[in-house]
Amino acid sequence: ADWSTGAAPTKVVPHPITSKGQGVDLVVLHHSVTGQSPSMDRARAIEGYHQRAGSEFFDIAYNYLVAVDGTAFEARGPYTQGGATGAGQDKLSLSVCAIGNFETSHPPIMLLDTIGELLSDLVKTGLVKPGFKLQPHSDFKATACCGAHLKTAIPSIMSRVGSTSKATPVAAPPNTYSCEQKLRWIEQILAM
């Protein structure tokens, strides 16, 4: 609701695994084959495209969207069956779509970090099983998705999930840093 245009799905299909309180053991990685920024506008454009008249989708096809600036968007969310993978896999998996075209460009570190953090959080909450598989869309359909450059980054993403996915869930500390502090840190990181 914080980022969406407010378009309501025309129907909702509960995820047959997560809606029963169980975790999936497969996450499918996609890319949007679109421009990359600004992330909010791009997420809204994907929503509009997937919910346009005549679309085969009743909502955004993915469970999550992740932008190159590190912003993660909940699309259908974990309790609704995705519609992007096909081949009978949507009812067995969750799908994460990286916003951008990773057939032609390399995924930035912030994107990989955010996907890793998202997957870690999903494991911690029990929506994804520890030891899950992260596979490109092309493993299930004749497509170049999730793009050659993102596909080769899958081991790097999984290393970011690593042992943190087995940790006991804890409450996140409140964000007590000012915008100015965050901007200074970003400037310092970029200057490295």
Give the tags.
single chain, 192 residues, 5-stranded mixed β-sheet
Describe this structure in words.
With 192 residues, the chain is of the alpha/beta class. It has 5 helices and 5 strands, in the order βαβββαβααα. It has helices spanning 39-50, 109-124, 148-151, 154-161, 179-191; strands at 24-31, 64-66, 72-74, 94-98, 128-136. Strands 3-2-4-1-5 form a 5-stranded mixed beta sheet, covered by helices on one side. Helix 2 (109-124) packs across helix 4 (154-161). The longest helix is centred in the middle third of the chain and has 16 residues, at 109-124. Mean pLDDT is 84; it is low at 167-175.
Cα Rg: 17 Å
Helical/strand content category:
alpha/beta
Helix content: 25-40%
Question: Unreliable stretches, pLDDT < 50, 5 or more residues?
Answer: 167-175
The amount of beta strand, in percent, is 5-15%
Number of helices: 5
Principal-axes shape call: globular
Mean pLDDT: 84
Task: Give a short account of the largest sheet.
Answer: 5 strands, mixed
The side-by-side strand order for the widest beta sheet comes to: 3-2-4-1-5
SSE series: EHEEEHEHHH
Q: Find the count of extended strands (DSSP E, 2+ residues).
A: 5
Span from first to last CA?
36 Å
In short:
Helix 2 (109-124) crosses helix 4 (154-161). The N and C termini lie far apart (36 Å).
Secondary structure topology:
Blueprint: E1 24-31, H1 39-50, E2 64-66, E3 72-74, E4 94-98, H2 109-124, E5 128-136, H3 148-151, H4 154-161, H5 179-191
Parallel strand pairs: 1-4, 1-5, 2-4
Antiparallel strand pairs: 2-3
Helix pairs in contact: 2-4
